[in-house]
Amino acid sequence: MDLFLQQLTNGLAVGSIYALIALGYTMVYGVLKLINFAHGDLFAIGAYLGLTLLTTFGLSQYLGPMGVVIVLAVMVMGLVAVVGAVLERVAYRPLRQAHRLSAVVSAMGASIFFQNALMLVYGARYKVYPHDILPKNAVSIMGFEIPLVRLLVLLTSVLMMVALYLFIQKTRIGTAIRAAAIDQRAAKLMGINVDRVIMIVFLIGPALGGVAGLMVGLYYGQINFTMGWMYGLKAFTAAILGGIGNIPGAMVGGLLLGVIEAMGAAYISIAWKDAITFMVLIAILIVRPTGLLGERVADKV
Amino acid sequence: MKKMSVFMLVLMIGLLGAGSALADDPVRIGLMAPLTGAWASEGQDMKQIVELLAESLNAAGGINGRKVQVITADDGGDPRTAALAAQRLSTQKIVAVIGTYGSAVTEASQGIYDEMDIIQVANGSTAIRLSEKGLKHFLRTCPRDDEQGLVAYQTLKDGGYKSIGILHDNSSYAKGLADEAKTLLDKDGANIVFFEALTPKQNDYTAILTRMRASNPDVVFFTGYYGEAGLLLRQKMEMNWPVPFIGGDATNNPDLVKIAGNAAAKGFRFLSPPVPQDLDTPEAKAFMESYRGKYNGEPGSVWAVLAGDGFRVVAKAIEATGSEDPGKIVAYLKNELKDFPGLTGPISFDAKGDRVGDLYRLYEVDAGGKFVLLP
Question: Which of B88, B234, B274, B308 is most buried, by CB atoms within 10 Å?
Fold first, then answer.
């Protein structure tokens, strides 16, 4: 039982990061029907920018650990959002009317560009976040210890996801995003500026990806210019698992994926961890082709 | 006056031509390295080191009065890219090529170089099979996996551990080493309680560590790379699990300590050929001085330094034989070169082109995060 609970928290912490990244995939897909393959690299950019900001401004001299994290998170979100918006403007908007495959190829090109740009700017070696930013204490819950940072990662992700969900459901802009996701032309006829909606989606998605990158850097300490690929792949899987295009789906998919991985490693085989994960994905897609929370989209496309 | 200088020029060219037909034609040596991709840090170190050595060789007069020109190609750490890089290098009139790092990558290029009669001196490709194919022009400055497996077995045996966990990362190198050590340990009837693989580049290994902890090993032998090793050490400490870790030679990189932090890395041991920082030879000292002078730091890993050794033995062989004939150079390297003072200790090659001698040492990380060579 101990082992089970331990693995559950392990899985939830990884899963919440997958979920944050998955939100970016799913939002873009929802509105544009485009898989933004460069999204994983935006996440890596977030991790690197966080490190640069942390080391150049020496924030930890003026603020407590929580203050540092909050200020960093806000700055990283802002910067990565700008990168995301520029990406949309440069790589995707000119192809808006083109065949969908062209946009996918453009996305892959952007991914390769970002990855190599990171390597050229920061070098190919692993980069390491300072070790003394976050407190190292563990919290004792129901008799076993969980590192405090691990709980914070989980809490932050859940908070962000809830905030995003409310934003999409309750605000005017959120309504516009949902409208554009259902039918872009009809949305245009209703007086919604679809180009602006897409721009907003490309601000929010990358901002969340960037903050996930920052959390990975702060928590695991080690970042690498190729890290976007692995996390991107996992988050993309999570988005599909939950039903791509669906925001609560991305959250459920991410958390579930993390837990399946941890449990697969714990009770079946470590080496087969990824194989098990993808087997579960296939099984779910056979039963529910649109993902766990995906709506029926048979009449679309 | 003008006529005179033209006359002098003609005379000089004539003299030079008579002295040595190729005097201002440089000796061309290729370098194939992973300058991009997942191993880019290794490849860029290789390039820096070989270029540094070529510069100082040229400053000291070159090989028999001829300058050396290094021609670099990027193999991307990927076999397909390597095959293209090998084809491109083959057309550049190179005598020899230094590299590369990954075994699978070297394997993809071996045949191409051999067909073109170009000598290849690999620096990080430790897979056993590479030198078992009977290729005439293949050598390597790194040791083979079976040697490391033997040393690992010896270390684990001498440690007197009752139960052993072995963890690899499914790469052909790490799995090969893990299998090698397991086979030897099994023969002895050692108690291996855990033998599994992790997936590299995933950052979170708590699930694996939790599982491994349940099988309660006395020691864990990890055969993968330093990035994962650093994270394992760090996450192991966060779990308050005091089990000792021993690493293979791919963990020999100062970044390991940066990733793990001093506290978590303390007491970690690994097997590796010695790095020049730890050697007392004049060659190693001179090299370290010029490296620090130019790049302001320490070389990342021993593998890049072994590329430097590859360059130095090739230059030595061309100088000694006074020829660019690959047959003569290989014959010299395999038969006549004995205990050449390398940057990583004495270098000799056997008939297969493998480096001879027991190269492996045991290192331990001290409280300040330094790698200390154990006696």
Answer: B308
Q: Is residue A13 part of a domain?
A: yes
Q: Which of A9, A18, A126, A148 to mutate to test the interface with B (most CBs of B within 10 A)?
A: A126
Which two tokens mark B360?
């492996």
Chain A nearest-CA residue for B299: A125
Q: Are A12 and A154 in contact (CB under 8 A)?
A: yes
The Cα A192–Cα A173 span in angstroms is 10
Please give the ipTM for the structure prediction. 0.81
The confidence score (pLDDT) of residue B21 equals: 47
Half-sphere exposure of A186 (CA within 13 A, CB side): 8
Q: Domain containing A143 — which CATH number?
A: 1.10.3470
Write out chain A residues lying below 8 Å of B196, CB-based: 269-271
Q: Which residues of B touch A123 (CB under 8 A)?
A: 41, 44
The residue count for chain A: 301
pTM, entire model:
0.81
A180 pLDDT tier (thresholds 50, 70, 90): very high
Domains and CATH numbers, chain B: 10-143+279-347 (3.40.50.2300), 146-272 (3.40.50.2300)
> Does residue A256 fall inside a structural domain?
yes
Chain A residues with beta carbon closer than 8 angstroms to that of B295: none
Q: How many domains does chain A have?
A: 1
> Tens digits of per-residue pLDDT, B315-366?
999 999 999 999 999 999 999 999 999 999 899 999 999 998 878 889 999 9
- What's the gap between Cα B74 and its chain centre? 16
A300 assigned to some structural domain: no
Range of the domain at A109: 2-287
Cβ distance of B203 and A227 shorter than 8 Å: yes
- For B153-168, the pLDDT digits (tens) are 999 999 889 999 999 9
What would the pLDDT profile of A80-93 be if each residue is shown by its tens digit?
999 999 999 999 99
